Amino acid sequence: MIREDEVYLAGVLNKPHGTKGELQFTIADNAFMADDEEELDFIFCRLDGILVPFYVEEYRFRSDTTMLLKLEGIDTEADARRLTGVEVYAKQDERTPAEDEPLTWSFFRGCTVEDVQAGDLGKITLVDNSTLNTLFIIKQGDKELMVPAQEDFIVSIDRAKRHIVMNLPTGLLTLNDPDKAKEEVY
């Protein structure tokens, strides 16, 4: 059985496409990108509160935010219609790229992040590269941090341990916390 911390929200299934069980899929915040080299073999659909795996027979991108999926066992429009509106999750990438291999944005999902001054920041749940300034979205307790994914801020990356050490500018982590921001000014 797959655990919640082993997956990330990848998007939501929309209406059926055609009559052979193909589904339109809206991608959540660049969870998958047409230029990603990773193969999409399995997805997990949240059905009745449980993550149910589905084998992906084939997929193709329609745009940067949508793709068409054909899932094993979903062979009719009626089968596909039952999955309309269902959240889709994908497994975190656990493969460790070689030192000379360039990192893709999908590698960073699931990495832990530490700041040299603030310490442990949490785990990256999403990489938002929908704008010119790519952001790491980091889950820290019950809140989310948005940290610029700038090479200048990265001190080191331990590929095997999936751990990133960053040196973030003073005040960056308190931008959305007015009480802490006041403390730093005075």
Short description:
This protein has 186 residues and is mostly beta strands.
Describe this structure as you would to a colleague:
With 186 residues, this protein is mainly beta. It folds into two domains: 4-91, RimM (Elongation Factor Tu (Ef-tu), domain 3); 105-185, Roll (SH3 type barrels), CATH 2.30.30. It contains three helices and twelve strands. It has helices at 77-81, 105-108, 178-185; strands at 7-17, 22-27, 42-47, 50-61, 66-71, 87-91, 112-115, 119-128, 135-140, 143-148, 154-158, 163-166. The strands form two sheets. It has a six-stranded antiparallel β-barrel. The chain has a six-stranded mixed sheet with strand order 10-9-8-7-12-11. Strand 11 (154-158) and strand 12 (163-166) form a beta hairpin. The longest helix is centred in the C-terminal third of the chain and has 8 residues, at 178-185. It is elongated, with a radius of gyration of 19 Å.
Q: How many strand units?
A: 12
Strand order of the largest sheet: 1-2-5-4-3-6
> Which of globular, elongated, flat, extended, rod-shaped describes the shape?
elongated
Helix/strand/pairing class, anyone? mainly beta
- The H-and-E topology, N to C, reads as EEEEEHEHEEEEEEH
Strand content: 35-45%
Count of helical regions: 3
According to CATH, what is the topology of the largest domain? Elongation Factor Tu (Ef-tu), domain 3
Low-confidence stretches: none
What is the domain total for the residues? 2
> In whole angstroms, how far apart are the ends?
51 Å
CATH superfamily of the largest domain: RimM
| CATH C-level category of the largest domain | Mainly Beta
* Helix proportion range: under 10%
Mean pLDDT value: 82
Report Rg.
19 Å
Largest sheet: 6 strands, antiparallel, barrel
